[in-house]
Amino acid sequence: MNANANANANVTITDCGDSALVAKAVGLDAEDAWRLVHALADALDAVRLTGVHDVVPTYDALLVEFDCTRTDHDTVRRALSHEAARLGPNPARTTPPRHFVVPVVYGGEYGPDLPEVAAQLDLTESEVIALHSGTDLTVRCLGAPAGAPMTDGPPFPRPVPRLASPRTRVEPGSVAVAGRQAVICPMPSPGGWPLLGRTPVRVLDLHRDPITVYQPGDTFRFLPITPGQWDDYAGLSLADCHG
Fold first, then answer.
1. Element (H, E) at 54
2. Computed from CA positions of residues 20, 56, 52, 42, in that sequence, does the dihedral angle turn out positive or negative?
3. Whether residue 93 has pLDDT greater than 80
4. Taking the domains of the chain in order of start, what are their residue ranges?
5. Residue limits of the Carboxyltransferase domain (predicted)?
6. Gap between the Cα atoms of 101 and 133, Å rounded
7. Taking all residues of the chain, what is their mean pLDDT, rounded to a whole number?
8. Which of 203, 162, 176, 200 lies closest to 112, judged by CA?
9. Under CATH, which number does the domain 99-240 receive?
10. pLDDT tens across 132-190, in order?
């Protein structure tokens, strides 16, 4: 990889193989870095640069993938540099965040790792649930599989370790935590994050474009429900939980 100078001192741009670039926010705190790379991703998407087929922002960097038969590193780098310079270090959010209230059955067959997580944190199960559901969690990026919402973790006293033996299948709607992060699993998949509970609402809509109704910057608030309330919410989509 070859570093490349550009007009925004808070963004570095480097080559990543023969058909991608990485733009990374530097010299900023975590919140400002996250805001900058997501604003830069939105700006590059709006340009619709020929040959660019994917822009993937994370916490402090974004990956830009392109078809090397249709464009090249220099062309994409110039576009990134231009947009980074235009945005500056503190771009304003262009769309207001949306808020989703997500019902969750905690523990038991829905969240089999709740007792272990509580023991690891020296908390009761009720305290873990109260912390997980007691604050809005911001979606920071979309991960695997299928645009899973990667959010800030709840204010636990310490990070939560991953499972020693990952599961070969995690049910869709499973609500999990690991480290300082939290997630909702949108579809069946393997997974090594401890499961606290599961939501009966459908996270993905495969018949819409995009398939997710949430975007980075939106917030989730988890609502504890009982197993007996599961059917009250089953069949709803996450779009129905938009508050």
1. strand 52-57
2. negative
3. no
4. 11-87, 99-240
5. 11-214
6. 10
7. 92
8. 176
9. 2.40.100.10
10. 999 999 999 998 877 899 999 999 999 999 999 999 999 999 999 999 999 999 999 99
Q: What is the pLDDT of residue 5?
A: 46
- Residue 14, pLDDT score: 95
Q: CA-CA distances (angstroms) from residue 171 to 36, 97, 164, 195?
A: 34, 28, 19, 10
Measured distance CA(65)–CA(41) in Å, rounded: 12
**∠ CA 205-206-207, rounded to 5°:** 90
Contact 75, 52 (CB under 8 A): no
Segments in the chain forming alpha helices (H): 30-47, 73-87, 114-120, 125-133, 230-233
Read off the tokens for 143: 């991960």
- Asked whether the domain spanning 99-240 has the same topology as the one spanning 11-87, the reply is no
pTM of the model: 0.85
Residue 7 has pLDDT above 70, yes or no: no
Q: How far apart are CA 243 and CA 189, in angstroms?
A: 28
Q: Tell me which of 1.20.120.140, 3.30.499.10, 3.30.70.20, 3.30.1360.40 is the CATH number of domain 11-87.
A: 3.30.1360.40
DSSP symbol at 15? E
Is omega for the bond preceding 145 within 30 degrees of 0, making it cis? yes
CA dist., res. 151 & res. 217, Å (int): 9
Distance CA 201, CA 220 (A): 13
CB 128 within 8 A of CB 114: yes
Distance CA 158, CA 126 (A): 17
Neighbouring residues of 141: CB distance < 8 A, sequence distance ≥ 6: 57, 58, 59, 150, 216
Q: Maximum distance among all alpha carbons in the chain?
A: 59
